[in-house]
Design brief:
There is one protein chain. This protein has about 130 residues and is α+β, with helices and mostly antiparallel strands. The chain has one domain. It contains three helices and seven strands; from the N terminus they run H-E-E-E-E-E-H-E-E-H. The longest helix has 16 residues.
Length: about 130
């Protein structure tokens, strides 16, 4: 198992309650994941607690510098076979979103992404 994703989350914009969120996580050279304790695009005021105190998370996932769902790197072809993939919806061809993920589901997704990124050369090496 990779690091507990909750220990990697850092609060940004704490002085702006409507913008307060956790900073994005870079997963190798492949992915950027936004793991939040509130739904994407929710702009209600919020003060984030310790990430370990939340039961569910919302994740936005994209490849770093390209389209995740098809194209040159086609990361989603393999990842879409994972049991958790059905929880994601395509927001744009470069952004996948899943809401109401348990801590265990979020950790499993994070672990799978870390393994995927570690087992392949960086996307910029494919050119």
């Amino acid at each position: 198992m990779a690091d507990d994703f909750r220990s990697l989350l850092e609060t940004i914009y704490p002085e702006e309650p409507t913008q307060t969120c956790y900073d994005d996580l870079a997963i190798g050279s492949w992915f950027t994941a936004s793991i939040q304790a509130r739904r994407p695009y929710d702009d209600s005021p919020m003060t984030l607690k310790d990430p370990h105190s939340y039961d569910t998370f919302h994740m936005s996932l994209m490849t770093r510098g390209g389209v995740i769902t098809y194209g040159e790197w086609d990361a989603w072809t393999e990842l879409s076979n994972k049991p958790w993939a059905e929880k994601f919806r395509e927001d744009y061809p470069f952004l996948l979103v899943a809401e109401d993920l348990t801590v265990e589901e979020t950790q499993r997704i994070y672990d799978d992404l870390v393994r995927f990124a570690a087992s392949r050369k960086a996307p910029n090496e494919y050119k």
